[in-house]
Amino acid sequence: MQPKIKTLSNRAVAKLTVAKDTVFWDRDLTGFGVRVYPTGGKVYVAQARGPQGPKRVTVGRHGVIHAEEARKRAALVIARVKAGEEAVPKPMKPADGPTVAELAERYLTEYVSVRCKPRTVKTVRSVVCRHIVPALGKLPLIAVGPTHVAGLHQSLHETPAAANQAVRALSAMYKLAEGWELVPDGLSNPCRDVSEYPGRRRERFLTEAELDRLGSALDQVETEGRASSSAVAAIRLLILTGCRKSEILSLRWEEVALDQAELRLADSKTGARVVSLSEPAVKLLAGLPRLPGNPWVLPGRKPGTHLRKLDDAWQAVRTRAGLEGVRLHDLRHSFASRALALGEGLPMIGKLLGHARIETTSRYAHLARDSVRASAERVAESIAADLL
Questions:
Q1: What is the mean pLDDT of each run of 10 residues along the chain (388 residues)?
Q2: Could you give the CA distance from residue 147 to residue 10 in angstroms, rounded to a whole number?
């Protein structure tokens, strides 16, 4: 039996030496191998059984083509032989077939537009149309390799977030392409080994003193007329519930169950969810006026509309409170940090914030460690006081 190695990579193939002609087969893609000669020569081969029997084709020489390119060629040969088609003769060229642009169009229309929320659709469409299609759109899917993706990623290095979004979107496109059978079986995702740029930590957590100043500032700007009552109420609700801005601004009275102290959101970022309300939040909501003919909790200036922006109001509030640089979203982070300080675990924090995945909540893990460390310090100090 011919030997097998887990993955035929450039590094693995370079290390292979033999005393006699030997073929090493890849464990991931059946039929893909490298033939190693005692002289040191190495050629990549593809082998499959078709209607006319087994067939083996040389797809390239090691050192001339990359192992990943050989894998793509082999996957195509294997698929064609099994289908009873003629294997592509050596030297192979990237397959004709669906291009990245064609996949992008199908990805946007059949997946993103159907599965994602409007805001996400807008973001993904921008990433695909502004970055992916201009850079890679004309290439056949099978021709795109890690080098192409790394080049795209590097070209956007001045905007790391956009660079990472582009790689994620392209990776998602290739995963769907596999399910849609637009690429040969065994073709690896070209985004697999591209490392994303590290994200910048943007979490800001308000201290007790800062929250106290914020409360005073809210009272002052409302009294002075520098912010509407709806805007001030919205900011207070953000602090008291930990909700997203979009969830509060689009809140309808039919979603408010004061008797059960709940918000029953029909459509949030992660779908329908229930938000438990504290007593202060219930009192705040109970005190808000209900305008005839307006279903919104936070009405806008025009009849029948709801509040859409908090930028001006928040600027006035944070300036008065001395909180320059603090974002509205930091109120949500502050809600989470206070919950952790009170002993709540990450799973519960995720439920309070409406996170669909625990990975999203894991950004607060360092706060959880700090809380545990502080508790350990208090316990140790108490014991030490009795011992000494």
A1: 73 90 91 89 90 86 87 88 71 63 95 88 94 93 88 92 94 92 78 82 78 94 92 93 90 93 82 86 93 92 90 94 90 83 76 72 63 61 64
A2: 14
Instruction: Confirm if 157 and 163 have CB atoms less than 8 A apart.
Output: yes
Across the beta sheet with 22-26, the strand order is 4-5, 22-26, 32-36, 42-50, 53-61
Which domains occur in the chain, in start order? 4-82 (3.30.160.390), 100-179 (1.10.150), 208-375 (1.10.443.10)
Nearest partner of 140 among 181, 98, 111, 105, judged by Cα: 98
| Spatial separation of the C-alpha atoms in residues 61 and 39, rounded to whole Å | 14
- The conformational region for residue 301 under phi > 0 = left, psi -120 to 50 = alpha, else beta, is alpha
Which pTM does this prediction carry? 0.55
Element (H, E) at 2: none
Tokens of 321: 């409170």
**CB-based burial, 56-85: b 16+ in 10 Å, e otherwise:** ebbbbebeebbbbbbbbbbbbbbbbbeeee
SS3 198: coil
Residue 228 CA, distance from chain mean position: 36
**26, 22, 47, 51: which is closest to 37 by C-alpha?**
22
